[in-house]
Amino acid sequence: MITSTTDPQPADFADVRATNLAVVLRFVREHAPCSRADIAASTGLNKATVSSLVADLIDRRLVRETGLTENRVGRPATMLVLDGSPYAAIGIEINVDYVTAVAVDLSGERLLSWRRSFSGATTAGQAIAGVAAIVRRVVNRMAKEERQVLGLTVGVPGLVGTDGTVRIAPNLGWHDVDLSGDLAKALRDPGFSVQVDNDANLAALAEHRFGAQAGTANLVYLTGEIGVGAGVILDGRLRRGGQGYAGEIGHIQLDPLGAECRCGRLGCLEAVAGIGAVLEHAALSPAEVEVELDEVVRLARAGDSRTLNVLGTVGRNLGKGVAVMANLLNPDVVILGGYYVPLAPWLLPEVEAEMRGRTIAPDVGGCRVVASTLGYGAAALGGAARVLDSVDSGRLPRIS
Ligand SMILES: [Zn+2]
Q1: H/E element, 113
Q2: pTM given for the model
């Protein structure tokens, strides 16, 4: 017999209202300009409720009326659009020697996009002080524009627990760093939420909201940085796994006799299909990697056979890994990000050929592989996207 220890509770009125506010906000985000009657007709909420919810969203300056009206049978309807001009969502990506900061308004309009050199920080404490200084500059800029910060998400290349603790970030040399707690402290209780997430997860959120594949329900983003990680969106939701560590595709073993990975194991995807397998020199700084990468692209364009051989091998190795993803998750699209983007013209044909040979589903289960169009700032943009996701799911700013 199945027993329940808790009786069903009557839904909390405040929760229902917050949920309904979020429903209306999302509808306006997707369908603006739209009228109150449109919202009522599509959401099933009655007209009086919609009017009250819209009034609340207007008070919070999340939605505004446009001067436009739409003539219908009967009286003209006032059209609504997202407002959000008084708000900003901030995303930061911490990488080995640079930090990227992005701020967007409620509609996703880019307000700011910075990339700052970040060398000299040898401990997590120094890095956090440096990040806090950058966040303060972003917040000051937003304050000058009279914008309230809705929240901040920081992306890190490493394992991030669901509590915002960075368990391991090998390229940063971090272990068990309470990044969200320490950063909030360094910002002296900033009055907005400080979240921390894995860089691949955030880049996947950025693609899902802003990218060329926006709205694709089953989407995998592969970071092509020094490390390789996957952000996995299935059925429209980011999948983190039990402790938040899902998507470490960089450490599946492709070749038991392959090159040594930075994790100490042999033949990991990251070691045989990461950017390190493309470049001649190991352990370069990102700035140096970009210079070398330009040279690889130049040689590939010129038809240099050695370069084309290397890219062929790396593409086939990458294809083996992507085929594992295709068999396991059946994504609609796999997006190659970071350093893979400039190499995509040479990698993609190899990846696709491997997938055709290794995926059990007909037509590789409908999975396409494409290069990201969001550039190196994808994870930072995803940090801002995560803040907007939180607003869209009902965590609305208080009326100031
Ligand atoms: Zn490894």
Answers
A1: strand 110-117
A2: 0.91
